[in-house]
Amino acid sequence: MKRIVVTGGAGFIGSHLIERLMEQGHEVICIDNLLTGSSENIEQHQTSPNFTFIEHDIVYALPEVGQVDEIYNLACPASPVHYQADPIHTFKTNIMGALHVLELARKTDAKVLQASTSEVYGDPLVHPQPETYVGHVNPIGIRSCYDEGKRGAETLFFDYARQFGTKIKVIRIFNTYGPRMHPEDGRVVSNFIMQALKKKPLTVYGDGHQTRSFCYVGDLVGGIIKMMASPDTLQGPINLGNPNEFTMLELAQQVLRMTNSNTSLQFHPLPSDDPKQRQPVIDEAFAHLKWKPTIMLEEGLRKTIDYFLTKIEGK
Length: 315
Ligand SMILES: NC(=O)c1ccc[n+]([C@@H]2O[C@H](COP(=O)([O-])OP(=O)(O)OC[C@H]3O[C@@H](n4cnc5c(N)ncnc54)[C@H](O)[C@@H]3O)[C@@H](O)[C@H]2O)c1
Prior knowledge:
By secondary structure, the chain is α/β, with parallel strands linked by helices.
């Protein structure tokens, strides 16, 4: 049994990660300021003696947690609507937050994993994106607080490893979906499902031919845990995502079919800096972790639609 800190554990991905770690019998300390996460996402663990929740903003020095074995750093709003609401705080979360978790790792000699993102590739000029691609990022745009914040955090992780020998792991997560996504996060999967269930027109940005790849959260969490368990020599960065690409139009049709909805599509201009395509190369994940996604889009969408249905029905 390990003592494990998960920052951002009350969020979408973090709560699934905690669920898996608790099932494995570990002691988990969740640190979250509940900015975009919710206590509902972790309420099933609240009575467990192996679980502690600390409401705290990682922009500020971490509370005393004692000796820990592993730290997963997931705290950061992930959807543009949320991270652009207070861009300076988002940037601080990435940079100050990374410094604070790295200091905890240095003090306790814990392994520390950074949840980085495909956004470090920006609007990529290379497609699909291998980890060796250094990206095409606008440093002054409205997405920069997130993209450059995550890039800066990666820099800090690798500098801590070089300067102090800190045991780091960096993963770059591509679009992930599943139950416990924030229904109002403005991202395409939640938008389409919520709109289809409410029989409203589906909002498609641009002409809908831009592509994304979507990974089901259960698959992703398996990859995150495998990365943490890998030998210390494997620092990453490692892409984790689903390489199956879809256009937004294809996704819209699939959601309409699965929700038995026949509402229309409403086209809007593309938001500033929106990447036109995104697809991970996951050869490194397969070579080092024997990981690849197994849940098909239809199966994942079914579980996600069921979750949103319970939200709408207020269950
Ligand atoms: N969901 C995706 O598709 C995706 C893709 C790439 C990377 N990621 C990364 O994975 C991580 C988790 O993403 P998610 O989709 O679960 O997002 P989320 O918004 O659901 O979860 C983030 C959690 O971090 C907490 N948080 C935010 N700022 C904080 C702060 N300053 N101090 C403490 N807690 C704070 C929030 O309250 C929330 O519980 C993020 O770091 C995100 O950048 C997610």
